[in-house]
Give the backbone structure.
Amino acid sequence: MKLRKKILIFISIVGFFGISVIYILVHFILLNRFDKLDKVLLEDKMTTAVSSYQNELKTMKSNLLNYSVWDETYHFVESSIPKKDINNSTFAA
């Protein structure tokens, strides 16, 4: 085997080994750290979204409850039905 072929094979093996080591380091060290950071950020955003959703539901519930108590229609309907008619069922025609 000529020296030229030996040098070419040696350079190819060293290059392949170097690229493999860089890939392993990048994949197992850097990408795992980024995955963990993404997971933490996603969990934080989901917690914020769920909390915002729960607060909005609580606000809607309290506002609707307050509105139903303050509603003028409720008082109008309540005052338009005489109490004696409710017990005697004189609504039938």
In short: The chain has a mean pLDDT of 81. Residues 26 and 32 are 9 Å apart (CA to CA). The longest helix spans residues 3-70. The chain is about 90% helix and 0% strand.
